[in-house]
Design brief:
0% strand, single chain, mainly alpha, 62% helix
């Protein structure tokens, strides 16, 4: 159920961002891909680790570079 709610939220956020010309990078799929990898969470087992943030950055960086390159 929670996964469905996250997907619904992300779809709405993506649509709203798109209607306002704002880039939207969905990291949910990547987070789910690493769901069983303890290295992607800090010791509390809930919050993302630096390794997960690095993966999210890898996903978002091309979008940011593209936006900064549009002149």
């Amino acid at each position: 159920r929670i996964a469905d709610e996250i997907d619904t939220y992300n779809a709405a956020a993506h649509a709203i961002c798109g209607s306002h010309g704002v880039a939207f990078v969905d990291v949910t799929g990547l987070s789910r891909q690493y769901a069983g990898d303890a290295a992607m969470l800090i010791d509390d087992g809930l919050h993302p680790s630096a390794a997960m943030y690095a993966e999210w950055t890898r996903l978002a960086l091309p979008v940011a570079v593209g936006l900064l390159s549009d002149t």
